[in-house]
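Suppose a colleague, Dr. K., hands you the sequence of a protein chain of 267 amino acids and asks what its three-dimensional shape might be. Before reaching for any lab equipment, you can write down a predicted structure in token form. Begin with the sequence itself:
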Amino acid sequence: MLSEIHAFLIDLDGVLYQENQPIPGSREAIMWIRARGIPHLFVTNTTSQPRRSLVEKLARMGIEVTADEILTPSVAAVEWLRTHAAGPVGLFVQDATKEDFADLVMVPPDAATAVSAIVVGDYGEHWSFQALNQAFRWLMGDPAPQLVALGMTRYWRATDGLRLDTGPFVAALEYATGLKAMVVGKPARCFFEVALARVGATPQTACMVGDDVVSDIGGAQALGINGLLVKTGKFRPSDLDHSPLPMVILPSLGDLPKWWEDHHRDR
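The predicted structure, expressed as tokens, is then:
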């Protein structure tokens, strides 16, 4: 029931902003959520920058948040690696993001040192045959390192058009090595479970707001979380063929307050 929803999990890129531009109405929607005291958490697969940079970016848009209000795959990965893969780690992430892994022993991609895990995130234009092949060679070691994916998002929308995200590169490594990645970002079940725990909600009382019908909405729905798709960011008309369809489809996050009021008048 829509009236049972009392917490929001909110994506960032494509929902609050697109690259460095806020999406109209997003700031006001967050202010409305906070004024109503509705529990919420920002959940993002962004691995091109650390949480500190995301906090600063949101502040420039007039949205004040703390690092603890943002759940990223990097944060989840560090916690998982400490327990399951002690030892040096090969990181395929942007240089800025490495600060979120500062507590781990990091090995540069061009090193021949054996590693306990390979972490693949948004590596952007740093990807090359040499980089992908180095990850492959590490994973073909004996014993094979853990393959950790900071999400399986297929693509995202930049100002110059669509760009490949983390998922395709992880899929290539899985195919070449026969290994299965441990996914610590959306749409992984464990990521959403951590998010629910942080907002004190159950799947039935939470709603995931996103622009990605697969990673955001599909991942949430697989756990029984309500999905709210916005037609901003990477949204494409073909997303409406997704099965099952999201619970709600809105033009943008800015339309959320009116939708909420319309469905909670009798509470």
